[in-house]
């Protein structure tokens, strides 16, 4: 079914409130990967969107005194505006209230009822409203109201007739699949968590809500379903990954992109993606995505950043203060993929000054300044010409390491979702560039004899080649900065026309006229202390 398109998704974000740093994080990671694959010359389909049904949204809308659809319509532009501010290059934005989605969900429901994978039963137990999760057994502390085992908020006791989706029937198959495909759930710690969970029998999933209790959802089509039910929000939302590519219409132009290569998610939504979703797909007779990659949380003072905890950091404020690329860089550099991280403006400030202004910004600025000074801004050609013997001064190329091999190491890091390592590699190269300048002392060479001038030529030509490659390698992370670098280096055409494998190319910059501009990361005024 699948064509060669790299199809990747973010979760669909709840529209109960505008987006915060946690949502920005998943989406920036997806964007970095999308850009990386595009540079590799692969067609990419990058899907994001919003999850608009369910009790959480109905309650938020009621609190705002608005009908849920109007409430959602007013929140959604906050997401698209943030994605624009963050330079997110998504290809499609799906809303679960769109007809293309609701009709797909209804088709899946009808198919699964007909195949016997959905059945009518009675649910008895606890229910967590904010998480929309049933908890058949909750152990309460004596004298205290029972709370949700996951989010620790109070749960309600309910008993009602509902539709259920068979999970237990498929448990042995799912375990086998996860065991057979080592990279299906990444990182390994999350894979082990799911395998441990699948060790014990699964409760079938309650996938309906009586409209008497919840009206804001996709109606379960009646017939064949009994009247008066809407679809559980998770069952509805997960299906977006196939409705966006046309399900159930397998003739849809996008359908060949299924299965997705990657679902990017946070650790709080592992179970729906690693248990419910594969079973839903299998029951529908559809192939499974290649990988579900799971990241950690951004914490504030040890607590998950979330609207309900009231500790959110507004991404727009941080972007206004530090710029979009510093923000993107920080999110991926500060914390290894899969781990939790703590957000603080001080940590971002430190990275801005040390890594961006001092290391990267300074390297670009000083190289371009020397090029202006010693070569009138025209990049010299240091390639040995064919047939001409190398002069005796020529040192082995290895005295400056970043080159073809760097791109290979970076690719491995991207393929392993090890973005922090990719940036560590790049900053090791940047450090090496700065150290090489200090060691070679072009300002001394410039005053020397002909041999020294040849060495000066070689040093600056090599540095320019490296900066060109660096612009390409950095593009997935910091597209605006890379494009500025491209322009300042005087490189022709668009950076996006360069292929990853050709990022580093000996002599690629020879003859270019640079256009030195302002420093890429201007020094920031120290924040006044009260
Ligand atoms: N609507 C569901 C997902 C349905 S997917 C078919 C949902 N939405 S959410 O808005 O609550 O969260 C979406 C994503 O944001 C999740 O991947 C979640 O992990 C991520 N984050 C929300 N807060 C976060 C942090 N504080 N830190 C990092 N990411 C977190 O769940």
Question: Characteristics of this structure?
Answer:
530 residues; Isoleucyl-tRNA Synthetase, Domain 1; six-stranded parallel β-sheet; elongated; binds 5'-O-[(L-methionyl)-sulphamoyl]adenosine
Structural commentary:
- By secondary structure, the chain is α/β, with parallel strands linked by helices.
- It has a domain of 158 residues: Isoleucyl-tRNA Synthetase, Domain 1 (Orthogonal Bundle).
- It is 43% helix and 14% strand.
- It has 17 helices and 15 strands.
- The strands form four sheets. It has a six-stranded parallel sheet, sandwiched between helices. Strands 5-4-6-8 form a four-stranded antiparallel sheet.
- Strand 13 and strand 14 form a beta hairpin.
- Helix 2 crosses helix 3, helix 12 runs antiparallel to helix 16 and helix 13 runs antiparallel to helix 14.
- The longest helix is centred in the last third of the chain and has 31 residues.
- The radius of gyration is 27 Å and the shape is elongated.
- 5'-O-[(L-methionyl)-sulphamoyl]adenosine (MSP) binds next to strand 1, helix 1, helix 7 and strand 11.
Task: Give the helices and strands, then pairings.
Layout: E1 6-14, H1 21-39, E2 44-51, H2 55-63, H3 68-85, E3 92-95, H4 99-114, E4 118-128, E5 133-135, E6 156-165, H5 171-180, E7 185-186, H6 188-197, E8 205-206, E9 208-210, E10 229-231, H7 233-238, H8 240-243, E11 262-266, H9 270-284, E12 291-295, E13 298-300, E14 303-304, H10 315-322, H11 324-334, E15 341-342, H12 345-375, H13 404-415, H14 419-440, H15 442-445, H16 450-474, H17 479-488
Parallel strand pairs: 1-2, 1-11, 2-3, 7-12, 11-12, 13-15
Antiparallel strand pairs: 4-5, 4-6, 6-8, 9-10, 13-14
Helix pairs in contact: 2-3, 10-11, 11-12, 12-14, 12-16, 13-14, 14-16, 16-17
Bound molecules: 5'-O-[(L-methionyl)-sulphamoyl]adenosine.
């Amino acid at each position: 079914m699948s064509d060669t398109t790299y199809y990747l998704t973010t979760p669909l974000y709840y529209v109960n409130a505008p987006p915060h740093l946690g949502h920005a994080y998943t989406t920036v990671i997806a964007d970095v990967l999308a850009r990386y694959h595009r540079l590799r010359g692969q067609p990419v389909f990058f899907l994001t969107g919003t999850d608009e049904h369910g009790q959480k949204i109905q309650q938020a809308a009621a609190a705002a005194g608005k009908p849920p659809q109007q409430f959602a319509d007013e929140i959604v532009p906050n997401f698209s505006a943030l994605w624009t501010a963050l330079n997110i290059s998504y290809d499609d934005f799906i809303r679960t209230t769109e007809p293309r989605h609701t009709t797909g969900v209804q088709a899946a429901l009808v198919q699964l009822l007909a195949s016997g994978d959905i059945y009518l039963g009675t649910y008895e137990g606890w229910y967590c409203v904010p998480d929309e999760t049933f908890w058949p057994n909750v152990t309460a502390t004596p004298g205290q109201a029972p709370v949700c085992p996951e989010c620790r908020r109070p749960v309600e006791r309910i008993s009602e007739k509902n539709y259920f989706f068979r999970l237990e029937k498929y448990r042995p198959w799912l375990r086998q699949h996860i065991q057979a495909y080592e990279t299906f759930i990444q990182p390994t710690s999350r894979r082990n968590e799911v395998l441990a969970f699948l060790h014990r029998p699964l409760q079938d999933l309650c996938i309906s809500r009586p409209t008497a209790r919840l009206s804001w959802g996709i109606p379960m089509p009646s017939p064949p379903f009994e009247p008066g039910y809407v679809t559980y929000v998770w069952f509805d939302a997960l299906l977006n990954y196939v409705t966006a590519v046309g399900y159930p219409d397998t003739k849809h132009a996008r359908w060949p992109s299924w299965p997705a290569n990657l679902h990017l998610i946070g650790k709080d939504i592992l179970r729906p993606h690693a248990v419910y979703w594969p079973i839903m797909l299998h029951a529908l007779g559809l192939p499974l995505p290649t990988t579900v990659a799971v990241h950690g949380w951004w914490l504030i003072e040890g607590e998950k950043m979330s609207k309900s905890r009231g500790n959110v950091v507004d991404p727009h404020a941080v972007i206004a203060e530090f710029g979009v690329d510093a923000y993107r860089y920080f999110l991926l550099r500060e914390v290894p993929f899969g781990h939790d991280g703590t957000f603080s403006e001080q940590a971002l400030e430190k990275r801005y000054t040390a890594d961006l202004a001092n290391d990267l910004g300074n390297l670009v600025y000083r190289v371009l300044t020397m090029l202006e000074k010693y070569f009138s801004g025209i990049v010299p050609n240091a390639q040995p010409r064919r047939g001409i013997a190398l002069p005796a001064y020529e040192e082995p190329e290895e005295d400056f390491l970043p080159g073809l091999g760097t791109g290979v190491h970076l690719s491995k890091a991207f393929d392993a979702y090890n973005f922090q390592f990719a940036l560590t590699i790049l900053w090791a190269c940047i450090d090496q560039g700065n150290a090489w300048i200090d060691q070679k002392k072009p300002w001394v060479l410039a005053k020397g004899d002909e041999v020294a001038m040849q060495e000066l030529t070689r040093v600056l030509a090599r540095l320019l080649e490296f900066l060109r490659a660096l612009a390409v390698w950095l593009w997935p992370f910091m597209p605006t900065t890379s494009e500025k670098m491209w322009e300042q280096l005087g490189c022709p055409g668009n950076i996006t026309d360069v292929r990853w494998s050709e990022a580093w190319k000996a002599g690629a910059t020879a003859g270019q006229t640079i256009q030195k501009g302002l420093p890429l990361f201007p020094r920031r005024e120290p924040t006044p202390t009260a």
